[in-house]
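Note to self: keep these together.
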Amino acid sequence: MENSEIIRLFEAYSDDVFRLALSFLRNRQDAEDVCQSVFLKLMHYPQPLKAGKEKAWLLTCTANACKDHLKSFWRKHVVELDDTMEFSSDTDKTLWETVNSLAPKYRAVVHLYYYEGYTQDEIAQILHISRTAVQTRMSRARNQLKEVLSKYE
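Structure:
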């Protein structure tokens, strides 16, 4: 793959890759590492990506890299530092904390559906799960969010 094409894809999709990694890992530094490794993998990918499917490939690669990272020995035996973020309102902070309190498999489908705008079929392909599994995870995530956020109304 040519450098100009990699740069174009990086400029177009690096934020999407980073946000998905952050939703999985809940740690800025780990998300940056995964984002970097995804684009390094793209540089060494032997064949050009299908036109129009670049973002899906990058997000699939990101999801897989995040899953590998979550299963790693290092991740299980290291204590994370508290990462402080600034929010414009208490509502935004509460929503962020609530979504991040979901299990990674639920956070991933919520992120891909609401933030990236993918359909349930596309999410199923990206995460390598069935459409029914996506629907189930979305339903459970919505119920968990509804239950926690109803306390704040």
